Sequence to fold (172 residues):
Amino acid sequence: MNNRINGFGTEENRNQEQICCLVENGHRCTRRAGNASYSKRIQKIVQQRKLKLNIDIGVRHIYICDYHKNMIQSVRTKRRRNESECGRDSPEYEADLPDIDFFAMPVNTLRRYKRHYKLQTRPGLSKAQLAETVSRHFRTIPVVEKEALTFFIYMAKCSKNRFDQPKHSESS
Fold:
């Protein structure tokens, strides 16, 4: 009985028998393939980011190794910045960016964000377009790290939800 899928016996044996399907800089990757696949969407990202990765035409699968999966994910989450921004063009700053998946958020949350920041968009955006707009805007918000940490520590110590705002009473 020959129950072979994609040229391999069982799902358990697949990862042991397959190697990454990618060719990087003209050299075939020899790492063990994981469960991530080199889909059309991923191929488009690789092409847009000008990575020197191609699929080996001789392979019978599209599974890639964890190394290439992480490489592709890292270029997806990196922010592009103008060099004119004050000191934020260093590679160390790029690594500190938060990974927030706006595409996983509910549409109502994205709409509230858009409304709160008064973002100008055309009507009838899809969820993906709205998430992309919100993501682009979110990346442009400057954060003064010292102030943010001070605020966080204050809130944690006082167990409060917001700063105590003094009540302006009109009685004299």
User: Anything to note?
Assistant: The chain has a mean pLDDT of 77. The two ends are 93 Å apart (CA to CA). The helical segments are 11-17, 40-48, 66-77, 91-95, 107-116, 127-140, 145-158. The chain has seven helices and five strands.
